[in-house]
Amino acid sequence: MLELRHRGGCPGPGGAVAPPPREGEAAGGDHETESTSDKETDIDDRYGDLDSRTDSDIPEIPPSSDRTPEILKKALSGLSSRWKNWWIRGILTLTMISLFFLIIYMGSFMLMLLVLGIQVKCFHEIITIGYRVYRSYDLPWFRTLSWYFLLCVNYFFYGETVADYFATFVQREEQLQFLIRYHRFISFALYLAGFCMFVLSLVKKHYRLQFYMFAWTHVTLLITVTQSHLVIQNLFEGMIWFLVPISSVICNDITAYLFGFFFGRTPLIKLSPKKTWEGFIGGFFSTVVFGFIAAYVLSKYQYFVCPVEYRSDVNSFVTECEPSELFRLQSYSLPPFLKAVLRRETVSLYPFQIHSIALSTFASLIGPFGGFFASGFKRAFKIKDFANTIPGHGGIMDRFDCQYLMATFVHVYITSFIRGPNPSKVLQQLLVLQPEQQLNIYKTLKSHLIEKGILQPTLKV
Amino acid sequence: MTELRQRTAREPDGPPEDKESESEAKVDGETASDSESRAEASPPLIPADDTPEVLNRAFSSLSSRWKNWWVRGILTLAMIAFFFVIIYLGPLVLMIIVMCVQIKCFHEIITIGYNVYHSYDLPWFRTLSWYFLLCVNYFFYGETVTDYFFTLVQREEPLRILSKYHRFISFTLYLTGFCMFVLSLVKKHYRLQFYMFGWTHVTLLIVVTQSHLVIHNLFEGMIWFIVPISCVICNDIMAYMFGFFFGRTPLIKLSPKKTWEGFIGGFFATVVFGLLLSYVMSGYRCFVCPVEYNNDTNSFTVDCEPSDLFRLQEYVIPGVIQSIIGWKIVRMYPFQIHSIALSTFASLIGPFGGFFASGFKRAFKIKDFANTIPGHGGIMDRFDCQYLMATFVNVYIASFIRGPNPSKLIQQFLTLRPDQQLHIFNTLKSHLTDKGMLTAAAEDE
Q1: Pairing status of strand B313-316 against strand A267-269
Q2: CA Rg, chain B, in Å?
Q3: CA distances (Å), A116 to each of A100, A121, A216, A303, B438, in order?
Q4: What pairs with residue A348 in β-bridges?
Q5: Any idea what DSSP says for residue A325?
Q6: Residue A420: its pLDDT value, please?
Q7: Is B58 helix (H, G, I), strand (E, B) or coil?
Q8: What is the DSSP-derived secondary structure letter of residue B141?
């Protein structure tokens, strides 16, 4: 009741009751309400406040400190503040792009590790925001539980997807085989242990908070972990399926920014006041052209085009194969109006370039919605950036927000239109069946193949 | 502010007071329990009585406590009888019932979210939640159920496209919903909208995935559906009985009515019940065979040669128990061994699902999820212990029982390239020859 009168006594701005010293009151508020009759309701209703107040009442989370390295600061100390910011962003952009090229050069395994590293960092950033929003940094067990769930879900996804590619490696080690074969059961058992720990850790005054953090963790896992594993699956399909989408998104970001900078006039959406229609449309066309050209360049090299395989003799990943039809030049006859423009009858293209148009279109039209989603999220929780990892750019999530949906789209696109099922996986599953079932399947396959003329009916050999 | 002063001035006694005190800063409204307390003058915590008039009159003479007991008892029997009727009607009806339960559970949890966040008037949101439910259901149908309806689907052209490109279509539909959400963000309500978005997705994760795993188990054989669900129900009832008669030591602070005696008694009773039930059911083909869609008769059939799991085998009893029972060997179905694992899970881990739901109800200050079943609360209240059971059974089957589905493998094979097909065929051939399954003579058939 004391808190009641205290809060009733200081009306906040705009008619909403939100006294400015809310942040500091967080700890003090608890002590005040200790003396009231129903402690649980008062503490929980603090979170009820969190639920139902409108956004204007929510205090800003103070921005973290500036992490620009000293070197850059000294080098740019002569310039004015605005250009300094521009230069820092520019330098960091180039640094990130060069790092990207370096890792591509180092191969698919390093890329996989990079993707995992980014996943862990993104997870960490979002969870930290959740802690700040709910002021629950001191909840018992919760930090441990979040990381534990991250581990379980990663293990599950590894068992589902990556283990197929490492099949030969896994066959050699007995324990690895066991871990992979029963991965569903083991990861589910581990998850259950975490679930029971959560239930046992529910503390009387903090139920709602704990449930919120539980849900926050799960939604974060859904966003970050599934996407990162889809990225890795795309990567194993062929590095080009990893590079072209990501580059398209980055290109769209950069060209939309440039077009907006030079020609921008009409605002695009209230959520992100800096985006303009001119930037959006200009970015769309340049991204399609960029994707087209990048696909043309990359399709020539086996290194990018072949599915990644693990060879047990060499003990590493190799990308060597006969390029599939997608990556062989074909002649397309131009439609009449293009014929007139380009004065050519046919053009040689890789079929993959047609697909790249679809990918770039998605990257420029729907990708930005991922960015708007992240902007809305930042406004909802009153944060300027997800974190301060990259000076001038914010956190890792800020760089990857437009990529959210791209990885899923590429994966869905591949499974729907490009790739059939993985042959080695089909074979694996065949070998696990009962012998009678195998025999039945064998007979069915044989008749099918003979029908299609792939297999000649054999004479006695 | 006027609302604030009004409430402090009112000073009702007892329970309503804590509802009032927590509402000091609420301009938008109150928590779920608050809205209940405003709706009914007294008593504020008990939701409206949905008991049918019939029952009310029949029990009007008994005291209130026994009346409640009788209402719960009758409804329990009604639900169990309903369950039997559905089983009798066959797998298709079961599937439809599972879908309905899923939709009702989704509706209940979403309504709680609306009450918690007072966001019932948010633009678009109700539509979006149902829309997402539809998309995710379509996706899961495409993933699992269409394999079983394969022959039916191949015949109809629109169905075939819907099934083959289900991932792409459902993802497109989901994206549309996502973009609508982003476009519907309203300036003052960002946080609320994100909360509802998160709430919807967590609910989808819990409710829809579980229900599709249940259907997946069902297609494996009705026994894989009936035995787990019955074990959970039996554990509920047995733990309650043991707790009622022998209960002394409280089990967990979250649910003060649960006791250790009930827990342990329920465990043993459920294991025994599971053994007996699986013994009875393993004898009948209609429970044991995988459900298949027969395109000649255009319906589901359960007709097959029972697998090894469901054929009586003899087990030698270990010496310890031999002396007690006096039998040397016992004849059991191997499935009964598995049923011990299922019952153990149902009695040991299943209750954690119940504790989770209790914690959830306490966190959001609600007594029951909804008022659908008189005396019992909402559908979710009945199914809270089943949360994890369906997933466990599915994981168990996938890990230990069933191999991959042969017809699905043939399907996948047919979509491969010819050279890949040839490669697989030759590998299979050499494998079978190694195993001695294939001889040169059989080759010529």
Answers
A1: unpaired
A2: 27
A3: 14, 9, 20, 22, 46
A4: A331
A5: G
A6: 63
A7: helix
A8: I
Q: Find chain B residues with C-beta within 8 A of A188's C-beta.
A: 391-392, 395
Distance from CA of B269 to the nearest CA of A (A): 23
The residue in chain A having the minimum alpha-carbon distance to the alpha carbon of residue B402 is A433
Rounded distance between C-alpha atoms, residue A373 and residue A379, angstroms: 10
A205/B contact by beta carbon, under 8 A: no
Closest by CA position to A139, among listed A68, A86, A193, A212: A212
Closest CB from A210, A417, A437 relative to B406: A437
What does the DSSP 8-state code read for residue A60? P
What is the residue type of B279?
Answer: Y
One-letter identity of residue A369: F
Chain B contacts in chain A segment 254-283 (CB below 8 A): 269-271
What is the Cα Rg of chain A in Å?
A: 28
Per-10-residue mean pLDDT, chain A, length 461 = 34 36 36 38 44 45 51 60 74 82 81 88 86 70 86 87 68 73 87 89 82 88 88 86 90 88 84 86 93 89 78 69 78 78 79 90 89 85 75 70 83 82 66 70 78 66 42
Is residue A439 within 8 angstroms of chain B, CB to CB? Answer: yes
Best of B178, B203, B395 to disrupt the A interface by mutation (most A CBs within 10 Å)?
B395
Question: With contacts defined as CB-CB under 8 Å, which chain B residues touch A44?
Answer: 22, 363, 365
Query: What region, left, alpha or beta, does residue B29 occupy, with left being phi > 0 and alpha being psi -120 to 50 degrees?
Result: left
Report the C-alpha dihedral over residues A261, A263, A265, A269, rounded to 10 degrees: -60
What letter would DSSP give residue A275? E
DSSP-based three-state secondary structure for A389: coil
Counting DSSP H helices and E strands in chain A, the numbers are 22, 6
Q: How far is A108 from chain B (nearest CA, A)?
A: 24
For A373, name the nearest residue in chain B, comparing CA atoms only. B182
ipTM above 0.90, yes or no: no
Residues with Cβ within 8 Å of residue B48, at least 6 apart in sequence: B40, B371
Residue bearing the bigger pLDDT, B267 or B12:
B267
Judging contacts by C-beta atoms under 8 Å, the chain A residues touching residue B181 are 373
pTM for the whole thing?
Answer: 0.76
Residue of B nearest to A55 (CA): B188
For tokens 């007979």, the residue is A443
Q: How many CA atoms lie less than 13 Å away from A278 in the CB half-sphere?
A: 11
Beta bridge partners of B299: B294
Q: Which residues contact B396 (CB under 8 A, 6 or more apart)?
A: A185, B338, B341, B342
Please check whether residue B330 is in contact with residue B317, taking contact to mean a CB–CB distance below 8 angstroms: yes
Q: How many CB pairs under 8 A join A and B?
A: 248
| Cβ neighbourhood burial of B106 (10 Å; 0-12, 13-18, 19+) | buried
